[in-house]
């Protein structure tokens, strides 16, 4: 397996090495390794991230139904920077127009009102526990959406039992397939 390597200095005084890099994130989500440390010139963190199909990094190959995605405006609501950026990149590479990504409920509601997405991919925890006002707004406008979550089904209210779910950690090809399915259903 090949790896992309990088070293990122921590410019923040007093923030510590872990300010933006939680201990378990890289080994679990990205199948990588991190090596934080301190040198006289400051903190550093070396990241060893795998490249390739199983890395969590978007696969550059377009899905079989990429033509459908070129007609879609997809709202991405995700507060995890790496997942949001990866989802955005995968969708854009496949030809979709991406609204966001946004990581706050009020930002998502503003985009829904202003931009009329074709469909949406929605995290249910935006840093303040589970929230469903974005899902309610999408449903009220008959905009198809899927939850992208690591939560069990019991955390999702009964009124959303019919909504599809993509389980975290997820592959971006699955996200592309789900987005294409929602775009086709919107027709």
Topology order in helix (H) and strand (E) letters? EHEEHEHEHEHEEH
Q: Kindly estimate the percentage of residues that lie in beta strands according to DSSP.
A: 15-25%
In the sheet with the most strands, the strands line up as 5-4-6-7-8
Give the uncertain stretches in residue-range form. Answer: 1-28, 52-59
Q: Gyration radius, to the nearest Å?
A: 18 Å
Question: Which CATH C-level class of the largest domain is it?
Answer: Alpha Beta
Largest pleated sheet: 5 strands, parallel
**Helical amount among residues, as a percent range?**
25-40%
The rounded distance between the terminal residues' Cα atoms is: 40 Å
Task: Please name the defining characteristics of this protein.
alpha/beta, Rossmann fold, 2 domains, 5-stranded parallel beta sheet, 8 strands, globular, disordered N terminus
Walk me through this protein's architecture.
With 187 residues, this protein is α/β, with parallel strands linked by helices. The chain has 2 domains: 3-50; 66-186, Rossmann fold (3-Layer(aba) Sandwich), CATH 3.40.50.2300. The chain is built from 6 helices and 8 strands; from the N terminus they run βαββαβαβαβαββα. It has helices at residues 25-29, 66-69, 81-93, 105-115, 133-140, 172-186; strands spanning 3-9, 33-39, 42-50, 73-77, 97-102, 119-122, 145-149, 165-167. Strand 4, helix 3 (81-93) and strand 5 (97-102) form a beta-alpha-beta unit. It is globular, with a radius of gyration of 18 Å. The termini are far apart.
């Amino acid at each position: 397996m090949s790896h992309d390597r990088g070293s990122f200095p921590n410019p923040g005084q007093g923030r510590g090495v872990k300010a933006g890099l939680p201990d378990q994130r890289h080994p679990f989500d990205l199948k990588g390794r991190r090596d934080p440390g301190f040198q006289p010139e400051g903190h550093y963190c070396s990241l060893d991230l795998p490249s390739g199909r199983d890395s969590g990094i978007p696969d550059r190959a377009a899905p079989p139904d990429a033509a459908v995605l070129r007609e879609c405006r997809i709202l991405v609501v995700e507060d995890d920077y790496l997942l949001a950026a990866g989802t955005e990149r995968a969708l854009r590479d496949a030809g979709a127009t991406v609204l966001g990504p946004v990581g706050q409920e009020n930002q998502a509601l503003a985009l829904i009102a202003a931009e009329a997405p074709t469909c949406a991919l929605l995290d249910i925890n935006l840093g303040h526990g589970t929230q469903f006002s974005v899902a309610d707004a999408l449903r009220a406008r008959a905009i198809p959406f899927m939850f992208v979550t690591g939560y069990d089904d019991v955390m999702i209210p009964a009124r959303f039992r019919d909504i599809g779910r993509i389980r975290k950690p997820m592959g971006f090809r699955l996200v592309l397939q789900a987005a294409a399915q929602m775009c086709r259903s919107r027709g």
